[in-house]
Amino acid sequence: MNIITKLAIAASLATALTSASFAADKLVVGFSQIGSESGWRAAETSVTKQQAADRGIDLKFADAQQKQENQIKAIRGFIAQGVNAILVAPVVATGWDDVLKEAKEANIPVILLDRGVDAPEDLYLTSVASDQVKEGTVAGNWLVSAVGDAPCKVVEIEGTVGSTPAINRKKGFDEAVLAHANITIIRSQTGEFTRAKGKEVMEGFLKAENGGADICAVYAHNDDMAVGAIQAIKDAGLKPGTDIKVVSIDGVPDIFSAMVAGEANASVELTPNMAGPAFDALAAYLKDGTVPPKFIVTESKLYTPADNPQGEYDARKGLGY
Ligand code: GZL
Q: How far is the centre of ligand 1, averaged over its atoms, from the C-alpha of 229 (Å)?
């Protein structure tokens, strides 16, 4: 470990000790959350608050309503308060360098949750997220196996423009399916990770594509947009899950209930517990300077109707989705 790193750690520890004056032995952590655009995001917030409570951490929570400028304001507020550490779920990948530099200059470690940033890696302690390219690849490989050699026209409902999950889930899925000449992606548009927008975008696709007769599958970058698309498909008089296959990502309870109803075909699970590994890494860093890996990757597991969807629904209900 070089001298610069040692000095940075010593400074962090000094900040932690001095600014722990918030309360005798309580760590104070600021959390800049994107908002509550999806069931998964709501679960992440709920799990993070519980993880903090279980560890005696004083969590300062800020909901940015999907706006980066609100996140930047919140982070600057946390710096001014002298918190011991900051969690950020960055709504988009770019535009973070300045505020992350301010946190670093204040010797406040920053941990990214569930999305990445295009910024120098020394500006954050670690990032806890899934391998989002892999999520797209798993979803794409499922569709390839589901359609075989039959021609299949796919529509894609993308996540928030400029966010790492939207960029990476598109990359992984498109590469997996476009290696097969019988599968084509005929339309792709952002549904902003919300149910309402996902429904609206799917309605547009159905209108533009002969009422949906030509659409074989919809790939949505999250389950909430898929659930919105399912409603649009039903409103158009078609059967989601059979006339149009539905594949998405998150593993929220509502996608499992859609599977039980035969209206969804596959979902790649994303754990809402990013905060547990984040708090563990922070505790080790503050205790004895243990530097965590730059990326802590959570697993991506495929679920289909063959995997006891009712049981999976029951296991997740009540976790804050
Ligand atoms: C992915 C996360 C995404 C979820 C969506 O890591 O950032 O944001 O898949 C949420 O449900 O909106």
A: 17
Q: Is the CB of 300 under 6 A from ligand 1?
A: no
Query: What domains are defined for the chain?
Result: 3-130+271-297 (3.40.50.2300), 132-270+304-319 (3.40.50.2300)
**Model pLDDT for residues 104-140, shown as the tens digit of each residue:** 999 999 999 999 999 999 999 999 999 999 999 999 9
- Atom 3 of ligand 1 has which residue's CA nearest to it? 165
Q: How far is the CA of 191 from the centre of ligand 1 (A)?
A: 12
Q: What is the CA 319 to chain-centroid distance, rounded? A: 16
193 lines ligand 1 (CB under 6 A): yes
Q: How many CA atoms lie within 13 A of 80 on its CB side?
A: 6
Q: How would DSSP label each residue in 77-142? A: HHHHHT-SEEEE--SSSSS-HHHHHHHHHTT--EEEESS--SS-GGGSSEEEEE-HHHHHHHHHHH
Classify residue 14 by burial, with Cβ atoms within 10 Å: 0-12, 13-18, 19+. Answer: exposed
Q: Residue 23 — pLDDT band, cuts 50, 70, 90?
A: low
Contact 159, 221 (CB under 8 A): yes
- Ligand 1 centre from 40 Cα, in Å? 7
Query: Which atom of ligand 1 lies at the shortest distance from residue 221's CA?
Result: 9
292: Cβ below 6 Å to ligand 1?
no
- The beta strands (E) that lie in the chain are given as 28-33, 58-63, 85-88, 110-113, 126-130, 152-158, 183-190, 217-220, 245-250, 266-269, 295-298, 301-303
CA of 250 to the centre of ligand 1 (A): 7
| Percent helix, strand and coil across the chain, each to the nearest 5 | 45, 20, 35
- Give me 138's structure tokens: 């798993």
135 lines ligand 1 (CB under 6 A): no
The atom number, within ligand 1, closest to the CA of 130 reads 6
- Tens of pLDDT along 262-292? 999 999 999 999 999 999 999 999 999 999 9
